[in-house]
Amino acid sequence: MKEKRREQVFLDLDFGVVRWLGGEIMTVPARVVGRVGRAMGL
C-alpha cells in the first residue's frame, strides 16, 4: 500500500510513472527502453 500511495502522488502531480521488473532490464532491456520512450512521448 505504501508504494501505491507513493505512485499516486506522482500521478496526481502529472509525473509519468514507468515500472519494470529487475529481470526485464537484464533480459529484455529494449522492452523497458520502449516503455520509457512511450512515457516520454518519443
Summarize the entry for a quick read.
The chain is an all-alpha fold and about 40 residues long. Helix content is about 65%, strand content about 0%. It has three helices and no strands.
Count of helical regions: 3
Shape, per Cα inertia axes: flat
What is the rounded Rg? Answer: 12 Å
Averaged pLDDT, please?
A: 92
Give the helix proportion (percent range): 55-70%
Number of domains: 1
Enumerate the spans where pLDDT stays under 50 for 5 or more consecutive residues. none
Largest sheet: none
Order of helices and strands: HHH
Separation, N- and C-terminal Cα atoms: 31 Å
What is the number of strand segments? 0
Class derived from helix and strand content: mainly alpha
Strand proportion:
under 5%
Helix and strand layout, with pairings?
Blueprint: H1 2-12, H2 22-27, H3 29-39
Account of the protein in words:
Helices cover 67% and strands 0% of the residues. It is an all-alpha fold and 42 residues long. It has one domain. It is flat.
Provide the descriptors you would attach to this structure in a database record.
0% strand, 3 helices, 42 residues, 67% helix, mainly alpha
